[in-house]
Amino acid sequence: MAFGSTFGRNTTSTTSTSLGSLQDLQNDVEVPAVGDDSISDLAFSPVAEFLATANWDGKVRIYEINVMNNMTGVVTPTTVNGRAMYTSGGPVLSCRFSTDGTKIVSGGADKEVKLFDLASQQAQTIGQHTDTVKAVRYVQCGPQNTQCVVSGSWDRTVKYWDMRQPNPICTLNMPERVYTMDSSQKLLVVGTAQRHVEIINLDSPDKIFRSTMSPLKLQTRSIGCYPKGDGFAIGSIEGRCGIQYIDKTRQNQYGFSFKCQRQQKTSPKQSIIYSVNSIVFHPVYGTFATAGSDGSFCFWDKDSRHRLRSFPSLNATIPVANFNRNGGLFAYALSYDWSKGYQYHTQNYTNKIRIHACKDEDVKPRGKKK
């Protein structure tokens, strides 16, 4: 199926091949003991089959995923076992593995950036903000590719940490509270309140490369950077996703936006709009997934402007999803995303993490349109 009529050309009707079913998800493996509150982030190790999860209960949990390769080359998860856990002083909103897979960084409502060493099982505070830490990433900065941690906060700053001293390497002031952040290669993109987007070239991490506004009309919810580091996709609370390129010529030629995370009502002109909570890119193919408050996730090919595969709603909001290091596994959380306020966060609300084995036909690009 084409992305839709939002870009005004190359549209087609829905085809059955793009529609997945609940039966396609029946073999997804459930992660055990995911915590007592909402799941806020999922991160895979870049070197092994480990998964880290951030939770509103103040804990980061690390799991090992056992996999099996079948005759068609599909990597299938078999069992998931808990391996480690550490605690913060408040809800944890973000977590990521280090590039060598030996450490995990996290941040949250206790305003601290924490580093956990898997070998020693010890956690330490490596950074501090004056308000909630919304997002953390491992990045490589400067011409020497110096590894450091970057954190974005509601205190309207982005800070870089070298993990060996309590003071930041440098601080960048943001125009508003940081709502989302992602990086790839030498690209760091920060989305803030009031739809501001700050683009940073990590060869010069101490300054803003470009300040712009979201191409979408309503509040920014998620950002995912392309694996090549040449652009990013941005999602909003209005059920819309924007495809953006850093190079302005490429943006004029290839940039567009499209509708997603929506449920059609009886009338063809009416639909229920949901937040796009998560945008993540396949590390090999460069295709991507969106997931949101409608309880569904979809795989897309931005270059051919096609929806590769969509799955029906699982009757619980999806706050976050992610691909593993080779794109063979796709983890998604079924957990309350707070989109309707605290009164909807009931004790019997679904709180799960599932791991889906990706088929090539669902995530492999289909070639550019001419």
From TrEMBL:
Superkingdom classification of source: Eukaryota
Spell out the SMART domains in the cross-references. Answer: WD40
Keywords from UniProt, A to Z, are: Repeat, WD repeat
SUPFAM superfamilies recorded: WD40 repeat-like (SSF50978)
- Database matches in InterPro entries: WD40/YVTN_repeat-like_dom_sf (IPR015943), WD40_PAC1 (IPR020472), WD40_repeat_dom_sf (IPR036322), WD40_rpt (IPR001680)
Which spans of this chain does UniProt mark as WD repeats?
Answer: 85-126, 126-171, 276-310
Q: Which residues form a coiled coil?
A: none
Say yes or no: keyword Repeat present.
Answer: yes
- Region spans: Disordered: 1-21
Cite the PANTHER family for this sequence: MRNA EXPORT FACTOR AND BUB3
Q: What is this protein called?
A: Nucleoporin GLE2
The protein's organism comes out as Dekkera bruxellensis
